[in-house]
Amino acid sequence: MFVPSATVGLNTVIDAVDKIRDTADSHNRLFFVEVMGRDSGFIALKSGIATGAVAVMTPEMGMSIDDLVAVLQAGEQSNKTSSIVIVAEGDPNGGAYEIAKRVKEKTDTYETRITVLGHLQRGGSPSCFDRVLASRLGVAAVEALRQGHNDVMAGVIDDKIELTPFEIAISTKSKINEDEVRIARILSI
């Protein structure tokens, strides 16, 4: 389900990672970029795919430190001189600082840098997509109220506006797209 500001946060992360990549490439460094995602890797996964991150670490994906080191070493053997790892703040291995420390304990090959984007992701001008989506959801909410529905949330599922009872919306945890997990793993090779 999409909500307004979904793409603003992603676009902010992508813009930041693009700038970090310039530095990583020119200085042959490994960057860990921590993004919001205490309970879900939605932002990390989508931004990792969009920016060509060498690895994405989320609460759902289960990448171990050993797995990450193997990916980094494979990249090094294919002559990669820099890498970016996107880390959702809720990754079970810890945040970007902890993961960088643990990678350093396994191999001292990499000069690492860490960037925590934090609440910077919440700011920014809404994209066209966000503005149109907000209008669509607003109209759906008003129409639902006019029809006597005052206990529902308007959202988008499969590009259609859907009304979901608050009880379900609050208790249901969104899941990351498994096909995107597969894509992220393929792109890290």
Structural features, described:
The protein is 48% helix and 17% strand. With 189 residues, the chain is of the alpha/beta class. It folds into two domains: 7-124 and 174-187, Phosphofructokinase domain (Rossmann fold), CATH 3.40.50; 128-171, no CATH class. The strands form two sheets. It has a four-stranded parallel β-sheet with strand order 2-3-1-4, with helices on both faces. Strands 5-6 form a two-stranded antiparallel sheet. Strand 2 (55-57), helix 3 (65-77) and strand 3 form a beta-alpha-beta unit. The radius of gyration is 19 Å and the shape is elongated. The mean pLDDT is 89.
The largest beta-sheet arranges its strands as 2-3-1-4
**CATH fold-type name of the largest domain:** Rossmann fold
* Mean pLDDT reading: 89
Q: Look at the structure and give the CATH class of the largest domain.
A: Alpha Beta
Shape-level CATH architecture of the largest domain: 3-Layer(aba) Sandwich
Name the overall outline. elongated
Sheet of most strands = 4 strands, parallel
Q: Could you state the order of secondary-structure elements as H and E?
A: HEHEHEHEHEEHH
CATH level-4 homologous superfamily of the largest domain: Phosphofructokinase domain
In helices, the fraction of residues equals 40-55%
Termini Cα gap: 29 Å
How many strand units?
A: 6
How many domains, as an integer? Answer: 2
Separate helix tally? 7
What proportion strand? 15-25%
Q: Residue ranges: pLDDT <50 for 5 or more in a row?
A: none
**Radius of gyration (Å):** 19 Å
Helix-strand category: alpha/beta
